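Blackboard transcription, Thursday session:
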Amino acid sequence: MKRRRLLKALGGGALLASTAACAPTPRADNTYRRPYSRKPFAAPRVSMDDVIRVVVGHRPYRPAGFVVKSEQMDAKTVVHNYGHGGGGLSLGWGSSALAVRETLGMTPGDVAVIGSGIMGLTSARLLQDAGWNVTIYARDPARHTTSNIAAGEWGPFSVHDPSVATEAFVSQLNWAARISHHAYTNLTGPDYGIRWLEWYTLSDAPFDSEFTGSDEAAKLYAYKGVLGPGEHPFPVRYVQHFVTMQIDPGVLLRRLVRDVQLAGGSFIVRNFDSVDEVLSLQETVIFNCTGLGSRKLFGDEQLTAAKGQLVLLPPDPAVDYMTLGGGRGMLYMFPRSDVLLLGGTFKPGDFSTHVEIDETERIVAEHERLYLNFG
Ligand SMILES: Cc1cc2nc3c(=O)[nH]c(=O)nc-3n(C[C@H](O)[C@H](O)[C@H](O)COP(=O)(O)OP(=O)(O)OC[C@H]3O[C@@H](n4cnc5c(N)ncnc54)[C@H](O)[C@@H]3O)c2cc1C
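(Written on the board underneath:)
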């Protein structure tokens, strides 16, 4: 997989040239051979009139990459696990496994986990499996976290800036991606809101190469390939396809909250304004899974918000693939069980929380155009 292309796309750079200009007209009989699904392509129903909601979220983006490390603070051990940018949902189990590794050699006892997003919940579950007694402290319950806003593709992208991050970080990222992928494949099915779907990256320019090289995540994809003009129904010349998991964050988080409770964990609603407040907790081992909250709480100024906007429409069960690209700006479509999700934007350094109407209109109009002549 050309990681740079996908990173750029998910990172919000100007994505892919003009569409439709020289793409062949889609076949009327819709008889395209698909790599995985046996069904004909169905076009998603997209219109401004049917928009249910537009949501804004802030990816906890750290150009040098996420932080997993432990430090001694007074008499406490604080284990950090934050800053996963646009790939935190995907990396949850793997990054938390790295974090829990920091407790090797300790005798399991009471542990505090701060945060009930994907990092807090997966850290909690892994700690419980290792014999720890977990209390989760969080300002917001899982359903009000950034994790619940995530679009839901399994793909650890837009996590770091390759021109800034070290090789050591990249190998940590790759390790976390492999572990997390493995863990999610054990959870596929409706219980955890995870299913396998085709993914199409759309482009008018040929893809430079097949899925080779050092991209670890790409090695985890199945049914990889490239289709040229006339071999697919999208109004661009080329598509790169693979099969990955799609995660419905709401279903996953609800289930993980329940799993934590079933394993004896408890939740306490609490905001922490300072490190001193954190260190005043009774537990001597504390996991910091506060996402973007770590910027203020632990003074990490490298951590910034990458604003993202998503447009939600009623679910369309007939659509069984995801797309990325095919328009002027960042563009993606995920057919989740709860909504048909259209994205999006990626704006590093933008902490504003308002919906941008022009972005909503762009996202909807560009998707409408993508499927105008679909078979
Ligand atoms: C628009 C958008 C699309 C995305 N799409 C994807 C995708 O398709 N795939 C993917 O893998 N990732 C995606 N992501 C990224 C993903 O959502 C994040 O990387 C991930 O949710 C971060 O999880 P977290 O647990 O670290 O943080 P959060 O989910 O933000 O949870 C942080 C927790 O810490 C608590 N907290 C924070 N500060 C304090 C404090 N001071 N005191 C007490 N509690 C505190 C909060 O209340 C919350 O419970 C997307 C993100 C956005 C915004």
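Lecturer's comment: The longest helix spans residues 167-185.
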